[in-house]
Structure formats: structure tokens, C-alpha cells
Design brief:
This protein is α+β, with helices and mostly antiparallel strands and about 100 residues long. Helix content is about 35%, strand content about 20%.
């Protein structure tokens, strides 16, 4: 579904690619929707009502984290949530997040 991007993918196309029957494909799509992974939109396609599936997950671009202070930090090996060095109280990380939030 990531590959489909903003265009989405027809539910029938998904279950065909997975080698499933319509019933099992529909159940999987419903479960993915219930768990918040996808959005199902009812659409008219070739005169029939069907569902188009859209991923709610976004691809992560590695470029988005390459300039984090953590990458170049001398204390990266000592940095832990409950440690003396921690991302929770790191001023450099806070500053980077504030500068890069949009």
C-alpha cells in the first residue's frame, strides 16, 4: 500500500496480490482499518461499489534524521531513557526538534 501512495489500492487488488479469496481479503482489510493502519473508502469502480485502501503510515525518509545531534554525539553509547545521558533531557535534541518541527 505504500507503493500506491495517495492513489490507494483497490481492496480486490490487494487480496489478489496476496493470493487470498475475497472473503479473507475483506476480513484482513477490516482488521487493518480497525487497528488504524489503513483507511478504507467506498468508491464506485467500473459500475460496482468497492473499497479503496490507503495506508495511514508514512514512509520515513532517512534524510529526515541524518542531521540529528544523536548521530554525531560522543555520548551516544551512554544515552538511555533512564540514564545520566538521555534523549528526554538532551538540550541539543530538544533544540533540533524545535528547529525541525513543521
Amino acid at each position: 500500500m505504500f507503493e500506491a501512495g495517495n492513489e490507494g489500492i483497490f481492496q480486490s487488488e490487494l487480496w489478489k496480490r496476496l493470493g487470498l479469496n475475497s472473503r479473507d481479503g475483506s476480513r484482513i482489510a477490516q482488521r487493518l482499518e480497525e487497528r488504524g493502519f489503513i483507511e478504507r473508502r467506498k468508491v464506485l469502480h467500473e459500475g460496482r461499489w468497492t473499497y479503496k485502501l490507503f495506508s495511514k503510515q508514512k514512509k520515513v525518509d532517512l534524510k529526515s534524521i541524518l542531521d540529528t545531534p544523536c548521530i554525531q554525539c560522543d555520548d551516544i553509547d551512554k544515552c538511555m531513557i533512564e540514564g545520566e545521558k538521555s534523549p528526554i533531557n538532551c538540550g541539543q535534541l530538544d533544540q533540533w526538534i524545535n528547529l525541525n518541527s513543521y
